[in-house]
Amino acid sequence: MKISPPVARTALTRAGGAPREMRLALEAQMYEAEKSWPQAIETYQALYRFYPEEIEYGLGLARAQAKGDNVNQALATLAALRRNGSGDDPRVDLCAADLAEARDDYPALLAAAESALKSAQKLQAPHLIALALRNRAWAQDKLGKDAGVLADYGEAARLYRQLKDPLGQASVHNELGSYYFNHGDFARAAPLYQQALVLFEGAGVKSGEIAALSNLANIAWEQDKRGEVKNRLETVLQLGRELGDPEREAWTLSALGTLQADMGQTAAALASYRDAIAVSERNGLEGQSAWSQREMAELLRLRGEYAEARRLAEQALAVEVRLKNRSGEAEALMRLGQVLRDSGDFAGARARLQAALSVSRRDKLDYTTACIEMELAILSLRENRPDDALPLLQGIVPILRNNDSKSGLALVDALRAEALSALHRGEEAHAALKNALAFAEAHPDTLEALAIRMSELRVLTAERQRAAAAVHTAALVKQVRQRELDGLLAQIALLQKQGLQNPGLQNPDQAAGVTAIR
What is the predicted pLDDT for the residue at 87? Predict the structure, then answer.
């Protein structure tokens, strides 16, 4: 069980007359709690050298070496433990599983979990069996092997209930919630996360509280509950800094960046993303850095900084492919497709989005699949292929409804309005646009509202509603400039140009007092 730095230091202070082994063990725990990895490695090495029969000292050494960026040394320590007669101890394989997860090496995680499970079953050790099952379920989920995930989590939960272990139960709830979340089933994920939070709070385990709160913030974000997101993120950031947890700090900074971008605080959002990337890179958190880069690429795309957005998206994609993170790979490909589409490379955009769709469908990432299909529909609209866009948009509605994604459904309606207007189905287009505008009016300061207003301008332009388009352009340009989103300004300029090409249409710049777009 992990202990806090103050507790570890107090215990060491009170152990002045204790035997040497006890003092060294307390020292090692103190350094580990304080994340002083060089000192922890040195102390565990001394313990392991003096007391080689104590497997926990060897495992502690491997943990410290891995945390201190000496993964190869950690693996060598585990190999030595196996050679010295500890090869059948499931704790060695469970430690190997931790090392594999830290590297996002899910095939290695799966192999280590299965080996640990066999050893634990031979020993009839229920706690170790449950932990091995959780590791195997997590690895299978990450590798897209769904068949045994629910069975493993179910058996682990049964064992923890039998053992009356609330922390074990909380961990299963949290991990199973993540399984459902990744498959777009928020209705099942949310109560599992909430149950985990209650159990972690009851036990005073802050690291567990952080995990559950972060996951609940993710769901609140997808369900457009911005106030709840902000409250949960602020709590997570405070807890993460209290624990000295760089991974959680980086995640929260990135999530805050996304929230700030949505609220129109563009400069603050870019600063948060840069801070998140810096914390990640400083602590060797490649997967976290890739996520932050993907999110920053999205904001840079809206700002029209296509070269930098593409660089970040490609950099994130390379990391996700190497780490075999399928959901991250799909999202990075989607971000790259968006950048290429907005910069005019429609063929390149379609290739990336189709590749993203293939990955998300293969791994049954339903919600991600819906998002990618929406981007493909947008691409079809930009290619003047509204007939291709409509079935894509209609197909993702059930997924969005299942996840209670009001913003997603509103965006679908706005895009349907564009497609229907292009097909001269005006009455249907206006009905769809009315639904979308209801969301935009209820959430006026969100990026989704801005996207809906852009669709409204496209409909007005297509229908040659000169006066309405001019007034709408003026209001939209003001909002976009306040947010410093030059990429959207360029799209408005293109729509203005298209409007001017219509015979008899007055100049929207003159009518609305709009100056030249940068």
Answer: 67
